[in-house]
Design a protein that fits this description.
Elements (H helix, E strand, L loop, with lengths): L1 H7 L7 H14 L9 H6 L14 E7 L6 E10 L7 E5 L4 E5 L2 E3 L13 E2 L12 E2 L42 H6 L3 H18 L14 E9 L5 E10 L1
């Protein structure tokens, strides 16, 4: 499976660790004729969600910060894996030649190597550099803060320790918008716990009564916030019921 993934998407050996980690994740949530329950379901006590799955190695446009937060651009990247315990993705930036973590991206999952040459993509340089066409090629990932480097040698490819990496946190909005998103998210357990605590607080301090005749009650909705640490892990999750 790993060999097929890398061959079909024309990925170099330096990304073998990410391919192995992604394969292990998919096998844990894939149904089997011999095992009645998937490993993920046995471990977590609930069925796995498939909504967040993407085609490994597919290109994607990801928003990258340039300078301050007001200056940004979309770079052409390749999707290479799933960070542990966070609903985001690993990307390899073809322009900056760096590995990073982000959630929001425009995936081009129908652009397979059979449709176009994947190793010859023309990248438009930023306005600060001379305008000319350049060929984007795969190089060994450049070290960024908090991200170990995938080493390449002429003799063999070295796998990352534990087949995993700690990525940079994204500047994009990672909060959930609706109850449906919250319940299907990887942090749904934390979200459900916060909602139950909030409702219990209302029950202990408020009385449920009918509104006066002719009065239309103000609507309400749940607002979800999660705080991410420098390593991309969720350190806190909050759910609050607010008026619309």
């Amino acid at each position: 499976m790993v060999q097929s993934m890398m061959s079909f998407m024309e990925m170099p050996p330096s990304f073998l660790g990410y391919a192995l980690e992604t394969t292990a994740k998919l096998l844990n949530i894939a149904p089997s004729k011999t095992v009645p329950q998937m490993p993920y379901e046995i471990w977590h006590g609930k069925p796995a969600s498939y909504k967040y799955l993407r085609v490994w190695g597919s290109p994607a446009y990801v928003k990258r910060q340039v300078g301050d937060k007001l200056d940004s651009r979309f770079n052409l990247c390749r999707f290479i894996g799933y960070p542990k315990e966070t609903a985001r993705y690993y990307f390899y930036d073809l322009v900056e030649q760096k590995i990073f973590v982000s959630r929001n991206a425009i995936f081009l999952e129908k652009d397979f190597p059979s449709n176009s040459r994947r190793d010859e993509v023309l990248i438009e340089k930023s306005s600060e550099e001379p305008q000319h066409d350049s060929t984007a090629s795969f190089e060994p990932p450049v070290h960024t803060d908090g991200v170990p480097v995938l080493c390449r040698s002429t003799r063999e490819s070295r796998l990352p320790e534990g087949y995993g990496f700690i990525g940079l946190t994204s500047q994009l909005d990672n909060d959930l918008k609706t109850y449906g998103e919250a319940m299907s998210d990887i942090d749904s357990d934390k979200c459900g716990h916060e909602i139950r605590d909030g409702l219990d607080g209302f029950k202990s301090s408020l009385d449920l009564v009918d509104p006066p005749k002719g009065v239309r009650p103000v609507g309400c909705k749940w607002v979800y916030k999660r705080k991410l640490g420098a390593d991309g892990e969720v350190t806190a999750f909050k759910a609050r019921l607010v008026a619309k």
